[in-house]
Structures are given as C-alpha cells and as structure tokens.
C-alpha cells in the first residue's frame, strides 16, 4: 500500500502509531483494518500503557471534533450526556480496530468492559492480563472527559478466557492499592477482591 493511499484510508494520527497493512471493505459494508501484529508484539509491555495514554489525546481530539460537528450548539463535549459521549468514543475506537467498550457500575465501582481487545485477540491465552495499552488509553481518555486525575487497571482479560476485558477506573489511591497487591501468585481480580474486602471492614 502506498503512503498516499494509506493516508487517504486512515488518519495521520493513527498512522503515526499503528502500521496498517491493509484496509478491507467487507461485503456487509463493515470497515476492517488489518494490523501489523509483529509491530504490536515488538513493543515492550512496560511501554504499552504510555502509548495508550498518548493515543488517548488524539482520540479525545477526534471525539471533540465529531461532537462539535454533530452537535454545533455545545461549547464543550462535557455538555453532552454520558451515553452520547461514550458512543462517540467507542465508535471511533471500533472503527480503528481497537474494539468497543461500555461503562458499567458494579458494587459501587466503575468498570470499563472492553469487547474485541486487539491484544487479547492477537496474543496467545495466558494467566495474566495482556491489555495494559488500554489501561493507559482509558486513563487518558476519562481523565480528559471528567477533568479528574483518574487511573485504570485491567482486572480480567480476554486472553485469560473471559468473554471481555474489564478495567477498574478510579482515582489513584484505589488503583494503587489494587496494583500493589498484584503479583505472580495474586491475579488482578484476586487483588481487587482483597481491596474490596478491606474497604468493607
């Protein structure tokens, strides 16, 4: 694929981070993007959250632009109801091959349920969570939306056999408490359950 053609098919902001091999139009009219799996596998895992956070800046800019085009009466995206704003975000992500997500409240905790995670689908099944890229992405995205300093940690992952990946979204004290309990013997889900019990005491 020539640079000129790829620039027409996919925005520059995506090309800067994601080498795209081909864009395919399916018979059903769906837009599919074929990613270079070797590129993603070559990135050190410890760098993935920061890459996700950087990409969230461009994601939020695209969402702002789309929101102002669709709803010209608003001054900021924060004026939109949360369902509308989340739809703009998840449609943008899904159209770029990164899956789609839903925001859910469970037991007074806020979770992001991610379906069709890029990493869960390209990586082999494993015991630990594989989608730290999205932790950074959701951290950056929801911090910009809420204007709060938020963090995100993956609690369950599709690479572990779950139907979808689930991320806990909260402020630093809770997320740090969970992350500090995760080890080779304690999964993120077990760490979260321990912190939850401690909070109930």
Description:
The chain has 201 residues and is an alpha+beta fold. Helix content is 49%, strand content 18%. The chain is built from 9 helices and 6 strands, in the order H-H-E-E-H-H-H-E-E-H-H-E-E-H-H. It has a 4-stranded antiparallel β-sheet with strand order 3-4-6-5. A two-stranded antiparallel ribbon has the order 1-2.
- Average pLDDT metric: 82
Gross morphology? globular
**N- to C-terminal separation?**
59 Å
Write down how many β-strands occur, each being a DSSP E stretch of 2 or more residues. 6
Strand-pairing-aware structural class = alpha+beta
Unreliably modeled segments? 1-32
Number of helices: 9
Main sheet makeup? 4 strands, antiparallel
How much of the sequence lies in strands comes to 15-25%
The helix-strand sequence is HHEEHHHEEHHEEHH
Rounded to the nearest angstrom, the radius of gyration is 18 Å
How are the strands of the largest sheet arranged?
3-4-6-5
What share of the residues lie within helices?
A: 40-55%
Task: Set down the secondary structure blueprint.
Blueprint: H1 3-9, H2 12-17, E1 20-25, E2 31-35, H3 37-42, H4 48-70, H5 82-95, E3 100-106, E4 109-115, H6 118-122, H7 132-146, E5 151-156, E6 165-170, H8 172-181, H9 188-200
Antiparallel strand pairs: 1-2, 3-4, 4-6, 5-6
Short description:
This protein is an alpha+beta fold and 201 residues long. It contains 9 helices and 6 strands; from the N terminus they run ααββαααββααββαα. It has a 4-stranded antiparallel sheet. A two-stranded antiparallel sheet has the order 1-2.
């Amino acid at each position: 694929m020539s640079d000129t053609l790829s620039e027409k098919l996919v925005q520059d902001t995506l090309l800067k981070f994601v080498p795209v091999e081909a864009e395919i139009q399916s018979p059903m009219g769906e837009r599919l993007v074929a990613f270079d799996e070797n590129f993603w596998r070559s990135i050190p895992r410890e760098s993935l959250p920061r890459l996700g956070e950087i990409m969230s800046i461009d994601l939020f800019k695209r969402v702002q632009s789309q929101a102002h085009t669709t709803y010209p009466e608003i001054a900021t995206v924060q004026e939109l109801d949360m369902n509308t704003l989340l739809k703009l975000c998840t449609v943008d992500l899904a159209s770029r091959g990164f899956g789609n997500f839903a925001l859910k409240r469970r037991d007074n905790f806020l979770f992001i349920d991610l379906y069709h995670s890029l990493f869960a689908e390209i990586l082999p099944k494993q015991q630990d969570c594989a989608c730290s890229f999205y932790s950074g992405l959701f951290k950056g995205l929801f911090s910009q939306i809420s204007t709060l300093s938020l963090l995100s940690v993956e609690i369950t992952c599709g690479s572990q056999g779950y139907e979808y990946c689930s991320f806990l979204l909260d402020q630093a004290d809770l997320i740090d408490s969970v992350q500090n309990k995760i080890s080779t013997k304690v999964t993120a889900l077990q760490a979260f359950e321990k912190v939850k019990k401690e909070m109930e005491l």
